[in-house]
Amino acid sequence: MEGANRPYQGTRGAVLARLRCSDQTVEELATALDLTPNAIRLQLQRLERDGMVTVAGTRRQEGVGKPAQLFGIAAGADQRFSRAYAPVLGALLEVLADRLEPAAVEALAREAGRRLAAGLAVSVTARPDEAVRQILEDLGGQAEVTRRPDGLLVEGCGCPLSEVTRGRPVACGAMETLLATALGHRVAESCDRGPRPRCRFLVDLARGGTT
């Protein structure tokens, strides 16, 4: 989705900041930000296109016959503002590593991957290469998929878990199990966990089952 990871600044950032606190009308936003209603409508149209803002209802205004539309943050958009997910997940993995045996931590990570796969909206009729692209894009990643005699080579353009995979192969194991569960084929990871982590998985189309 366009704008999904875009840092909003300027007028659009100011509009979002107000809507995160409460649903507001065009006129209320215009007054608060000292802009014209038309300028606010233009910003709202762009934010709606990006999936950040939606019509949240109506409000009757004193002395005005027609109710005014209320705008608010779109469902699911609020999480795009958070920067807490990566550090919290990283800290949780460190706590687990301190308190449990490595095999137990890996088992928990793979179970998390299986549960996450169950909630993914992947078409059962999609070809495996299309399905794997969809899965990684839905998680905020991007990948190139190449057909090989032994299956599909999936090479990520970056890593959706880059903040936690450095030095933590268990996170890649969770992704490996997620893909295997969603695709119904064996998957083996050989991710690059260096300074700029990149996903790399081999999907064995000749073998069913999960990792």
Task: Note down, in words, how this protein is organized.
By secondary structure, the chain is of the alpha+beta class. It has helices spanning 10-21, 26-33, 37-49, 85-99, 102-118, 128-138, 162-165, 169-183, and strands at residues 53-59, 68-73, 143-148, 151-156, 185-189, 200-208. The strands form two sheets. Strands 3-4-6-5 form a four-stranded antiparallel beta sheet. A two-stranded antiparallel sheet has the order 1-2. β3 and β4 (151-156) form a beta hairpin. α2 (26-33) crosses α3 (37-49) and α5 packs parallel to α8. The longest helix has 17 residues, at 102-118. It is elongated, with a radius of gyration of 22 Å. Residues 1-5 have low confidence and may be disordered.
The helix fraction, in percent, is 40-55%
Strand content: 15-25%
Radius of gyration: 22 Å
Provide the residue-averaged pLDDT.
Answer: 88
Total strand count, please? 6
- Termini separation comes to 30 Å
| Element string (H = helix, E = strand) | HHHEEHHHEEHHEE
Major β-sheet, in short? 4 strands, antiparallel
> Uncertain runs with pLDDT below 50, 5 residues or more?
1-5
Shape call: elongated
Structural class call reads alpha+beta
Instruction: Give the helix tally.
Output: 8
Numbering strands along the chain, what is their spatial order in the largest sheet? 3-4-6-5
What's the topology here?
Elements: H1 10-21, H2 26-33, H3 37-49, E1 53-59, E2 68-73, H4 85-99, H5 102-118, H6 128-138, E3 143-148, E4 151-156, H7 162-165, H8 169-183, E5 185-189, E6 200-208
Antiparallel strand pairs: 1-2, 3-4, 4-6, 5-6
Helix pairs in contact: 2-3, 5-8
